[in-house]
Specification:
The structure is a homodimer of 207-residue chains. Chain A has 207 residues and is mostly helical. Chain A folds into 2 domains: 49 residues, Orthogonal Bundle (Arc Repressor Mutant, subunit A); 130 residues, Tetracycline Repressor, domain 2 (Orthogonal Bundle), CATH 1.10.357. Chain A contains 11 helices and no strands. In chain A, helix 4 packs across helix 6 and helix 5 runs antiparallel to helix 10. The longest helix of chain A is centred in the N-terminal third of the chain and has 26 residues. The radius of gyration of chain A is 20 Å and the shape is elongated. The termini of chain A are far apart. Chains A and B meet through helix 5, helix 6, helix 7, helix 9 and helix 10 of A and helix 5, helix 6, helix 7, helix 9 and helix 10 of B. Chain A binds a DNA duplex (30 and 30 nucleotides) through helix 3.
DNA sequence: GGCGTAAAGTTAACAGCGTCAAGCGACCCC
DNA sequence: GGGGTCGCTTGACGCTGTTAACTTTACGCC
């Protein structure tokens, strides 16, 4: 909610907040330290942002746009749908690993922190996902007839997210090579193009 | 660090903490409310746990054991390695979706909260992953010769984690059917059994 | 030029957080 | 029965996000 108020201070707050986030991480993102560095008081921030969450949401929006730019660049560099899909996956993973602080507030924050995130921003953010859907559809062509590509594209995203988030969180066994895992994740995305997904019914039928 | 102190209060604290976590979620997990419900003061908790983190770690350990039990049950019910792998995936997803609060503190907590998590517990917790490795190896047999199954098993885990965590966080488009996504995630695990992973080199070579 | 008004920012406070040092009361042991 | 220790409480510190009330600044207008 951009009030009709001094926009210069708003910018300054956002700039400092971004720097604090990137340099010191999310837990260091507190109102008083930000205010101190901006050169105003903590309560002044509330003249420009409804709450701390609103400030974080502004940072999330920045991150979403940055991600969108990188995905679009990957898309533009690809020759075939299949190539583009591979580049999308790689770009998504790179974005997360190179901007872990952004990635964290964008996708790893506790739900309660996101409850107030405006629905419209949410919808816009999710549009980044459409790239996956779109290229998946293009790559599969008519072979996609009886497949739910929206769900499959979502699965591609959630799988990539799992890899990124656990790597960022430092929860992957140190013996596992990071690059190798990334390559496997990319390969897994391409694997989704192969024939119809294997049906587990023969196993499931066993009950 | 289980001090040689009144173990009854320790139990009571842990029981209340678990209930608060499950009923009110992680953000409600605060020292004073827990103490109030236990019938002691907040500082008393420090006689039994080094810190709030240590208390959370104890809950994480409980969750890890619960997960381990369910994975073992899935393993026992499976007829073939392939069937077991499918059941493992399904059990993992179910555990997360049915115990979102446990899952959150186990795998979705901010890294800084986990820094103090004892290395030994960490190692023990990761053993749950070995089930995936083990069944992947069994299912692939000699075909796995030139594949890094440790990394591949890790990828299966991270992919499942991505799906679980984003579902828990409520970040999946409402138009996507939850069960369908889960089925796709299970199918994706089984897909990792198909021939050698598709090589993206033909695309990558394009640079 | 001085006044009135509205905006912009400050001070002080509230309730809650995790945590720590000191103190109190009951029990055991010599 | 006096000393010591265990189990717990009291009170406090510094931090958090946030609000209400106050002060300062800026600007239009007569």
């Amino acid at each position: 909610m951009p009030r009709p108020t001094n926009p210069k201070l708003r910018r300054a707050i956002l700039d400092v907040a971004r720097r604090v986030l990137i340099e010191q991480g999310y837990p260091a993102l507190a109102m008083r330290p930000i205010a101190r560095e901006v050169g105003c008081t903590a309560t002044s921030i509330y003249l420009h942002f409804d709450s701390k969450d609103a400030l974080i949401h502004a940072l999330i929006d920045e991150g979403m746009e940055l991600l969108g730019r990188e995905l679009r660049a990957a898309l533009a560099a690809g020759a075939t749908p299949r190539d583009r899909l591979q580049r999308l996956a790689r770009a998504y993973l790179s974005f997360g690993l190179e901007n872990p602080e952004y990635y964290e507030i964008m996708f790893m924050l506790h739900p309660s922190r996101m409850e107030r995130y405006p629905a419209e921003n949410y919808r816009r953010a999710r549009r980044n996902l459409d790239f996956f859907h779109q290229e998946l559809a293009a790559a599969l062509g008519p072979a996609a007839a009886d497949r739910d590509l929206r769900a499959e594209a979502t699965l591609l995203w959630t799988s990539l997210h799992g890899t990124v988030s656990l790597l960022i969180a430092g929860r992957i066994d140190a013996a596992i090579d990071r690059d190798k895992l990334v390559e496997l994740a990319v390969a897994q995305v391409l694997r989704s193009l192969s024939p119809p997904p294997l049906l587990p019914e023969s196993d499931a039928a066993r009950n």
